[in-house]
Write a structure and sequence with these properties.
Catalytic activity: 2 nitric oxide + NADPH + 2 O2 = 2 nitrate + NADP(+) + H(+); 2 nitric oxide + NADH + 2 O2 = 2 nitrate + NAD(+) + H(+)
Oligomer: single chain
Largest sheet: 6 strands, antiparallel
Radius of gyration: 22 Å
Structural class: alpha/beta
Strand content: 15-25%
Family: In the C-terminal section; belongs to the flavoprotein pyridine nucleotide cytochrome reductase family. Belongs to the globin family. Two-domain flavohemoproteins subfamily.
Number of strands: 12
Order of helices and strands: HHHHHHHHEEEEEHEEHEHEHEHEHE
Keywords: Detoxification, FAD, Flavoprotein, Heme, Iron, Metal-binding, NAD, NADP, Oxidoreductase, Oxygen transport, Transport
Number of helices: 14
Shape: globular
Organism: Buttiauxella ferragutiae ATCC 51602
EC number: 1.14.12.17
Helix content: 40-55%
């Protein structure tokens, strides 16, 4: 535990941190990658270039300083980050590197004096210990599962199927032919790649898209215009190629009983974790109402429509509603969607006004905020709204 003086000193730096903004974390990352370039093999350098990771770290530092005397408030964020860290295989010694550069950054930007640096050193040490202990538990749990493993494990691509103009699914089976660990519907895989021509190893997390079967894993990847990894997977990856995977992880997953009504809300590739949830509900013969609400730009980019229909037909109380923002004349003629324009949940109030219904959201942050605001307007408590951000976490 931290003493009162250390807490007071750290909290006294909050105005300075807030005034500096993400410039603080930009200096930190530039310094760290300059002194420890080997960490470029772990960090997503695309998120460095677009600033998302720097913003996320700055927000985390400010949140820690603000709540330093009440770490319980931070535990949900700690769990989310710890789960992500395990897909990067972060180790305890790397926390020492990060801590050293954080303190050096504070010193170089502010020259705050030894008392402040010592206080932040103690505070960082406590937080690092929380992460190290939690990540050790996750690593141990993953290794102990039937079909589990430590570190990364070799897999081969056994199926590659275009699902729309933008989304392709990939199925991986272990190279050793042994079973693979189960996971919670909504969790993701850590995919490790360094093909020829990549300057650094790249690690990405992709949601698993079906109920676990103990034999293989399936993900779906959207082609991004500037996406180095997604472009390689779409353009170059072939059936038979070998890559390495970290064990399934993630704090966003469906956890309901057979009597719990569920609404799955997604846009674009955000439907991927929802597919695993829907598959799980269907194979478990879920008796309570299940809603599938999905938004796509138009029919050419709408993936997995047939699969959703097949799964929905297995549920006794299933309702699907699909919105196309800019449907083509062909889509209109074939009635491939239910509504045109943006997702309107208010119009479907009768389907979602059950008091114990759980809501799961995934898609672009702006879409999730838009959907969540509608749910709150309809009287849904925040505690029943669960969501996942692809990339660095953002607050809804």
């Amino acid at each position: 535990m931290l003493d009162a003086q250390t807490i007071a000193v750290v909290k006294s730096t909050i105005p300075l941190l807030a005034a500096t903004g993400p410039k603080l974390t930009a200096h930190f990352y530039d310094r760290m990658f300059s002194h420890n370039p080997e960490l470029k093999e772990i960090f997503n350098m695309s998120n460095q270039r677009n600033g998302d990771q720097r913003e996320a770290l700055f927000n985390a530092i400010c949140a820690y300083a603000t709540n330093i005397e009440n770490l319980a408030v931070l535990l949900p964020a700690v769990e989310k980050i710890a789960q992500k860290h395990t897909s990067f295989q972060i180790k305890p010694e790397q926390y020492d590197i990060v801590g050293g550069h954080l303190l050096a950054t504070l010193d170089e930007l502010f020259s705050p004096g030894q008392e402040v640096l010592d206080a932040w050193g103690k505070a960082y040490g406590v937080l690092a210990g929380v992460f190290i202990n939690r990540e050790a538990e996750i690593y141990q749990d993953n290794a102990a599962k039937n079909g589990g493993w430590e570190g990364t494990r070799a897999f081969r691509i056994v199926a590659k199927e275009p699902q729309s103009q933008l989304i392709t699914s990939f199925e991986f089976a272990p190279a050793d032919g042994k079973p693979v660990a189960d996971y919670q519907p909504g969790q993701y895989l850590g995919v490790w790649l360094k093909p020829e021509g990549f300057p650094h190893q790249e690690i990405r997390q992709y949601s698993l898209t079906r109920k676990p079967d103990g034999k293989s894993y399936r993900i779906a990847v959207k082609r991004e215009d500037q996406g180095q990894v997604s472009s390689w997977l779409h353009n170059h990856a072939q059936v038979g190629d070998e890559l390495h995977l970290a064990a399934p992880a993630g704090d966003f997953f469906m956890d309901v009983n057979a009597q719990t009504p569920v609404t799955l809300i997604s846009a674009g590739v955000g439907q991927t974790p929802m597919l695993a949830m829907l598959d799980t509900l269907a194979k478990n013969a879920h008796h309570a109402p299940v809603n599938w609400f999905h938004a796509a730009e138009h029919g050419d980019v709408h993936a997995f429509a047939d699969e959703v229909n097949v799964l929905g037909a297995q549920l006794p109380r299933f309702d699907s509603h699909v919105w196309y923002r800019t449907p083509s004349a062909d889509c209109r003629a074939q009635s491939k969607f239910d509504s045109e324009g943006l997702m309107d949940l208010v119009a479907l109030e009768s389907k979602i006004n059950t008091p114990d219904m759980q809501f799961y959201l995934c898609g672009p942050v702006s879409f999730m905020r838009f959907a969540a605001e509608q749910l709150v307007t309809l009287g849904v408590e925040q505690s029943r709204i669960n969501y996942e951000c692809f990339g660095p976490h953002k607050v809804m």
